[in-house]
Amino acid sequence: MSVDTHSDVPTGQLPTVVERKVPGPAHSAGPARLLTPTFALAWVVNFLQYLTFYMLVTTMALYAVKSFAASDAAGGFASSAFVVGATVARLFSGYLVDALGRRRMLLISLVVVAIACALYLPAANLPVLIVVRLVHGFGYAFASTALMTIAQSVIPDSRRGEGTGYFALGTTLSTAIGPALGLFLVGSFNYTWLFWTTLITAVLGMMLGFFLREPLAKREAQAEAEHIAQRRRFSFRDIAHPAVVPIGCFMLLVGICYAGVITYLNAYAENRGVTTGAGLFFVAYAVAMLIMRLVLGKMQDQRGDNVVVYLGLICFAVALGILAAANQDWQVVVAGAMTGLGYGTLMPAAQAIAVNAVPAHKLGTGISTLLLLTDVGVGLGPVFLGLLLSATGFGAMYTVLAVIVVLAALLYHAVHGRHPHAKRGRTVVE
């Protein structure tokens, strides 16, 4: 028996989570199936999308400076233009995914991404490069929203945290492989090799996307939801679903802290003389995340959201505290592992919370709301942190970020953690 308590609620209050009554042993042959062809294929396509992103994000600023004699500020914008395009797309990607269909929007966006990757090769000046980055970010936002929505639609409710964690492993792997691969291609060959590699990766993702289909029952339910969505007008709720805004604001704060890590890690390493440790930072991040995701997703399903989220917040605060004081390579590597247990835990945990806060036909809007607010934190964070860094230095900046994590913990408790459904698992054995 299943009782759905989802409903649209005012901002600032999350609805009671859906609880599924799981039949006892006499009625069930085992746990609901998680690894399905749809889930596996969505995982691969998602991994390829993020791999393309990470190969380029670490090389674009320097490419603009070297190839087009751009200033450091202009080169930085050439890199961050991707995030600008993605953030704009997030404003209505959820609505269009819900209204026009997940697979349809996925295929369109994968074609846009492939075209954008092809245009890196002939881009002859900085303005053209910036436009290509904007278009790439735009297509990427739609593709990631559609892929996550499709994957979430086939994850059993009783294994939501576990399934979301496994899906997030693709992003974790791309975080470890993408930057290293991009720097290797540029260092050992040239930027042309980099752009051809990203184009091949994007085309492969596009081709696999054509084979990605939801199960028949899911397609029928989606068709009905599309029909309902097409009859109503676009509204603010289609940009930011009220039920997800609270946990999204929590992730906005977390995103600011993560931006302080990924944006300034190289400059921090040169300043502190820990370049070797910085080179291994994301390797440690990925390894710690890969190991713990095998455990934390199940723990979230069985023991509730709080135990996982508070663990992630503690680990992230510790990581930032270590960075504030570190002056040896091994300390930076430890900080990388703790960041993996921190931010790498919080993002999939928040996705599971967001999915359970919205009805099935609003999955796209719910996911895009969370990603939009996280992107705002990651995108705008460096602007304010740059001013803080100039005034205080790296030690003080990372100390302030650790304090922001503590504030994020207080916000989480206020909007979600204090509620009973955050303290218990998603399954109740009858």
UniProtKB/TrEMBL annotation:
It is found in: Cell membrane. The chain crosses the membrane at residues 40-65, 77-97, 104-124, 130-154, 166-187, 193-212, 239-265, 277-296, 308-326, 332-358, 370-389, 395-415. The keyword S-adenosyl-L-methionine does not apply. Pfam families: MFS_1. It is a multi-pass membrane protein. One of its GO terms (molecular function) is transmembrane transporter activity. Keywords: Membrane, Transmembrane, Transmembrane helix. Residues 38-420 form the Major facilitator superfamily (MFS) profile domain. GO terms for cellular component: plasma membrane. This is MFS transporter.
